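Researcher: Quick test of sequence recovery. Tokens follow.
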């Protein structure tokens, strides 16, 4: 039977910030205590290794035969956002899986976009088309983000409203659409969120779509006098 590894838990940071001195002190204490494994759930900005306190401390640890595992601060979809990438550490990050609570938006031009939502239709998805409108068609910043009161005066009654993420939380936008008379909502990501989707409990039929899908839907709305979409 393999011997047990010496595992200890250290608090590296105190207060809202994480000073380099605290991180280095904690890692030095772990090395001095003779642990076999160090696991660090801190991701700093990318800097050269000689300026990276975790890279420096992990080098000292592996010289003592200690295995070092670090979390990565991956701010995709942009390139080069993974952190803790020193070759001497195991870098661990979240990945994708094949499970999602799907809610599909099918446009009047037959293009389909799979999104996610906890609001699921009863039985088979509806094939009935409803009018589709972009909340930012009045060119107001608050309107396109569907913040409270921003849809007043807009004709959204019974329509599916395309909103953009920002300022307020994802689930706060649904009541705004509903109070304005909207029948359903498509919530599109901004570019920084890319293809990351969340299955939220909305107050009306809704689906959250990627930034790329949102751009295509906006282009479709601008291409026809009667944009339509099926309820999800």
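Model:
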């Amino acid at each position: 039977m393999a011997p047990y590894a010496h595992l200890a838990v250290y608090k590296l940071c105190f207060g809202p910030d994480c000073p380099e001195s605290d991180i280095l002190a904690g890692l030095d204490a772990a090395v001095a205590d003779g642990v076999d494994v160090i696991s660090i759930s801190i991701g700093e900005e990318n800097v050269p290794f000689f300026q990276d306190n975790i890279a420096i401390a992990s080098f000292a640890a592996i010289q003592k035969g200690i295995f070092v595992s670090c979390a990565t601060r991956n701010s995709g979809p942009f390139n080069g956002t993974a952190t803790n990438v020193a070759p001497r550490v195991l870098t661990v990050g979240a990945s994708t899986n094949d499970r999602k609570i799907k809610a599909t938006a099918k446009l009047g031009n037959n293009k389909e976009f799979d999104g996610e939502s906890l609001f699921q239709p009863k039985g088979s998805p509806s094939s009935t088309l409803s009018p589709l409108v972009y909340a930012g068609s009045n060119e107001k910043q608050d309107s396109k983000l569907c913040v409270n009161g921003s849809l007043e005066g807009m004709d959204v009654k019974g329509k599916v409203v395309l909103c953009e993420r920002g300022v307020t939380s994802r689930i706060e936008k649904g009541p705004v659409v509903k109070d304005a008379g909207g029948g359903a909502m498509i919530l599109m990501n901004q570019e920084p969120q890319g293809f990351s989707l969340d299955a939220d409990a909305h107050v009306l039929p809704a689906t959250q779509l990627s930034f790329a899908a949102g751009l295509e839907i906006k282009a479709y709305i601008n291409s026809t006098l009667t944009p339509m979409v099926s309820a999800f």
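The longest strand covers residues 129-134.
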